[in-house]
Amino acid sequence: MYGCLGYPRSRFYARPLAVLTTHKGREILRCTKQLAESKSLQVIYGDTDSVMINANVDSVSDALAVAADFKKAVNDQYRLLEIDLDNVFRRILLQAKKKYAAISLVERDGKFVEHLEVKGLDMKRREFCALSKQVSKHLLDAILSGDDAEASLARIHDYLRETADKMRHHTIALSSYIIYTQLGKEPNDYPNADSMPQVQVALRDIARGKTVRKGDVVSYIVTGDPQSSLPPSKRAYAPADVKADDALEPDVEWYLARQIFPPVERLCANIVGTSSTLLAQQLGLDLGRYAASNLVRADAANPADLDIYPLESQVPDAVRFSACVRLSLRCPSCTHSEAFEGLAAAPHRVSPAGLVCPSCSALLPVLSLVAQVDHALRIETARYYEAWLVCDDSQCANRTRQMSVYGTRCLGPKGLARDCLGRMRYEYGEKAIYTQLVYFASLWDVDRARASALSMPAADRDKIFALAEHNRLRFATLKSLVQGYLEKCGRQWVAMDTLFSKLGFNRS
C-alpha cells in the first residue's frame, strides 16, 4: 500500500496518505515498545512491523510463555492488526539496523534444533569471496557459542592466524578466492572502468569475442604482487585465466586487507578484549594503519558510550607512542641516518659529551640536533594542517581534503553518497599530533629516562643515571624546543571559564 501511495507516477499516488501510513506504523511500534517496558521486558530492536524482546529466561518453554502473554496483550489493543511469534533466538549479535546474526531455535520432530540465521551481514553479499564468508561463519560460531568470552576470543585470534598463514603459503583452494559482481550497465558504458575489476575482466572477455551484457555476473580473482605499480583492478583475471597461467596467484595481502579484515572488524567491533589493531596483528597486516584507525575512532567516540579509557599518562609508553613517527637523526659527518628512541632505550647512542653516530662514532652537534628536531616538528605540524579526511570504514578507503555538505557522511569512493555508510574523520587529528609532540619531548626528558632505568639491572641503571646528568643541559635545550610547540597545542588546555557556561556557572 505504501509503495502505491508514495510513488509519484502511481495512479493511486496520495502523499498525505503515504505519510499517514508511516506515521501510524511508528506510533504502533512506539506503543508496543512502551507496553513491553511496562511488563518489565527489554526491547532490543524494532523495525517497521516487528520487535525483538529479551525475555530474560533460560528455557524455551518459559520464552514461549512470555511471547504468548505479550502477543495477547498487543493483539487486545487492535482489531485489524495482529502480531505473532516469528522466531525464538537463544543468542543474537546485532551489528546495525537490519544486520544481525542469531542462533534460532527451530522445532523439528518435537525437539528444538539450533540454526544460525544471518540477515544483512557481509557474508550474505555476493562481492565477498567464499573464503571471507567461511571466516565470518567461523567467527559467528565462536561469538554465539555461549562459551567463556576469553576462550571465544582466543579461538578467534588463533583461527585468524591459521587462516592468514594458510593464505600466505598458498594452501587454500583457488575457488575460495573467486569474487562475483553483477554489472549494473554495459561494460563499455562505465566512465571509471579502470578502477573496477569486474569491468576490466568483462572488457577482456569482450575482446576475446565473448558476449557480456548488463546484468551479467562476472567472476574474477585479484592476482599479482601487492608491491606492483598496477592497481588491483588491472590485476583481476577470470578464474579460468588464473588456472591456466601458473605465474598468476591470488594477491594474498589484498584479500586479507579487503576481503577478510573488514567483515572480521565489524563482527568483533563490540567485543571487549580485542581491537582493530589486535585483529590486524593476527592477520599480519600493517599495524600502523589500524592503530591510526583506532585513534580516529577514539577521537570520534560517542560521549554516551559507557567505555572507560585510562588516562593517557597512565598508559605505558610502548603502547601510547606505538603509532608515533620515529625521530630520525642524520650524522653531518657520514650522512648516516638512524632513529633515536631516547636515552633509556638507546644508551649506546649517548656519551658524556653528547649524542654519537652509531656508524662513525662522531659527535652530533647540538645545533644540528636542534635543526633536525625543529624540522621534524614542522613536518608533523604541516601534516596536521593538511587536514586529510579518511572514512572510518576500512573497506571504503576514501581519502580526501574536501569538506562535504553532508557533514561527516562519507560520499563513497565514487562520490555518489550511496556506496558507503562510514563517517569521515581526520586522518591526523588533534589527539594524534599532541601524542606525537609528547613523544618527541619524552626523547629528551632525562628525568623520565632515570625513572625508566629504575627497573633495570644495577650496572645499566648507573650508566643511564650518569649519562643523564652529563647531558641534562644539552637535552634540556632540545626538550624546550618541543615544549614551545606543546604550549601552542590547545589539546592540553581546558578553558575552565567556559567549561560550565551552558549550566549557568559563568564568571562573576
From TrEMBL:
<keyword id="KW-0808">Transferase</keyword>
<keyword id="KW-0238">DNA-binding</keyword>
<dbReference type="InterPro" id="IPR043502">
    <property type="entry name" value="DNA/RNA_pol_sf"/>
</dbReference>
<dbReference type="InterPro" id="IPR006134">
    <property type="entry name" value="DNA-dir_DNA_pol_B_multi_dom"/>
</dbReference>
<dbReference type="GO" id="GO:0005658">
    <property type="term" value="C:alpha DNA polymerase:primase complex"/>
</dbReference>
<protein>
    <recommendedName>
        <fullName>DNA-directed DNA polymerase</fullName>
        <ecNumber>2.7.7.7</ecNumber>
    </recommendedName>
</protein>
<dbReference type="InterPro" id="IPR038256">
    <property type="entry name" value="Pol_alpha_znc_sf"/>
</dbReference>
<keyword id="KW-0235">DNA replication</keyword>
<dbReference type="Pfam" id="PF00136">
    <property type="entry name" value="DNA_pol_B"/>
</dbReference>
<dbReference type="GO" id="GO:0003682">
    <property type="term" value="F:chromatin binding"/>
</dbReference>
<feature type="domain" description="DNA-directed DNA polymerase family B multifunctional">
    <location>
        <begin position="1"/>
        <end position="271"/>
    </location>
</feature>
<dbReference type="GO" id="GO:0008270">
    <property type="term" value="F:zinc ion binding"/>
</dbReference>
<dbReference type="InterPro" id="IPR017964">
    <property type="entry name" value="DNA-dir_DNA_pol_B_CS"/>
</dbReference>
<dbReference type="GO" id="GO:0003697">
    <property type="term" value="F:single-stranded DNA binding"/>
</dbReference>
<keyword id="KW-0239">DNA-directed DNA polymerase</keyword>
<keyword id="KW-0479">Metal-binding</keyword>
<dbReference type="GO" id="GO:0006273">
    <property type="term" value="P:lagging strand elongation"/>
</dbReference>
<keyword id="KW-0496">Mitochondrion</keyword>
<keyword id="KW-0539">Nucleus</keyword>
<dbReference type="GO" id="GO:0003887">
    <property type="term" value="F:DNA-directed DNA polymerase activity"/>
</dbReference>
<dbReference type="GO" id="GO:0006272">
    <property type="term" value="P:leading strand elongation"/>
</dbReference>
<dbReference type="InterPro" id="IPR023211">
    <property type="entry name" value="DNA_pol_palm_dom_sf"/>
</dbReference>
<dbReference type="InterPro" id="IPR042087">
    <property type="entry name" value="DNA_pol_B_thumb"/>
</dbReference>
<dbReference type="GO" id="GO:1902975">
    <property type="term" value="P:mitotic DNA replication initiation"/>
</dbReference>
<comment type="similarity">
    <text>Belongs to the DNA polymerase type-B family.</text>
</comment>
<keyword id="KW-0863">Zinc-finger</keyword>
<dbReference type="GO" id="GO:0005739">
    <property type="term" value="C:mitochondrion"/>
</dbReference>
<dbReference type="GO" id="GO:0003688">
    <property type="term" value="F:DNA replication origin binding"/>
</dbReference>
<dbReference type="GO" id="GO:0000166">
    <property type="term" value="F:nucleotide binding"/>
</dbReference>
<dbReference type="Pfam" id="PF08996">
    <property type="entry name" value="zf-DNA_Pol"/>
</dbReference>
<keyword id="KW-0548">Nucleotidyltransferase</keyword>
<dbReference type="InterPro" id="IPR015088">
    <property type="entry name" value="Znf_DNA-dir_DNA_pol_B_alpha"/>
</dbReference>
<feature type="domain" description="Zinc finger DNA-directed DNA polymerase family B alpha">
    <location>
        <begin position="313"/>
        <end position="500"/>
    </location>
</feature>
<keyword id="KW-0862">Zinc</keyword>
